[in-house]
Amino acid sequence: MGPTLMLAALLATSPARVDHAEAAKNDWVRYSVRLEPPRTAHVKYVFKDFTGRSSTFSFTADLEAFYAASHVFGAPPWLQGDFLATERAQREAELRAHLMRIQSGRFSADPVALVRYYDGVTRSVAALLLDELQQRHLDTRANRIAMALAFVQDIPYREVRDAGAYRQGILPAPEMLLDGYGDCDTKAIFFAGLMVALVGVEDVVLLVNAAAEHSLAAVRGTPGPGQTFIIVDGSPFLVAEVAGPRRIPLDEKGLESPDAFDVERLGAGTTTEK
Q: Under DSSP, is residue 246 helix (H, G, I), strand (E, B) or coil?
């Protein structure tokens, strides 16, 4: 995979370089960043696709756009305080503008809003993955899912710590790509965005366990004997553990019960279901 991905708008905080020695990753993974002052970063990511083949993913980031949009995601300190019941509607609107919400009386990131807001970024990545499959005559629905799963699982895993704005320990898609790491929530949201582009918005849901601070994704499909799935609106969805670095196949038997997770639908008329 050789083409360059141009990310027109990189969002979040400053593009701090990450010491990947602190991250859990597979031995074959390489993530490097080369800065070109005053406003450009060149990123190269080497991972193994679902066939075991080494693939190189490259993109160029416009840092000026990165800084300009840096405060979109996350509740700044002035939004985190208490508020009167009469102020709730205004506070919810302000939080939505920052891709946040109030859920069960707590401020939290809105994973559906994150998928939608960064749709342009994830579609750019999905286009490169699709181009790779088409060039190799491997473009099937199953291979699209497998390629995206390998891509996300190989991104180094590291706990995300908020700095400044409250983000519930989540990186938005462009910052994850620039810094080259993410945790389970960050990677599940990114994988869901790839699935929207590659298989359709109605064929993917997010599974969020707020108490355990863990997220999964699930993709519509027919489960085999003993495989892990969840029923959403009468259809089976195969569970994807995307956190990595272990390369867990889609719907592998023995994953934790999806019944402990809230279902976040990404399509029109989105609702959250326990």
A: coil
Q: Measuring CA to CA, which residue among 183, 200, 185 is closest to residue 237?
A: 200
The amino acid that residue 58 corresponds to is: S
> Quick one: average pLDDT of 266-274?
59
- 32: its two tokens: 């490097």
DSSP codes, 172-221:
-HHHHHHHT-B-HHHHHHHHHHHHHHHT-GGGEEEEEETTTTEEEEEEE-
Inform me whether the pLDDT recorded for 271 exceeds 60: no
Checking if the pLDDT of 256 tops 80, the result is: no
Determine contact, residues 259/239, Cβ cutoff 8 Å. Answer: no
**272 or 23: whose pLDDT is higher?**
23
Contacts of 136 (CB under 8 A, 6+ apart): none
**Nearest Cα to Cα of residue 49 among 202, 131, 154:** 154
pTM above 0.70, yes or no: yes
Indicate the pLDDT class of residue 18, thresholds 50, 70 and 90. low
Task: Tell me whether residue 192 is exposed, middle or buried, using C-beta atoms within 10 angstroms of its C-beta: 0 to 12, 13 to 18, 19 or more.
Answer: buried
User: Which tokens hold the place of 20?
Assistant: 């990947």
On the question of pLDDT at 153 being above 80, the answer is: yes
Percentage helix, strand, coil for the chain under 3-state DSSP, each rounded to 5: 35, 25, 40
Residues 6+ apart with CB under 8 A from 245: 24, 25, 26, 29, 153, 154, 156, 157
| Residue 119 near residue 94 (C-beta atoms within 8 A) | no
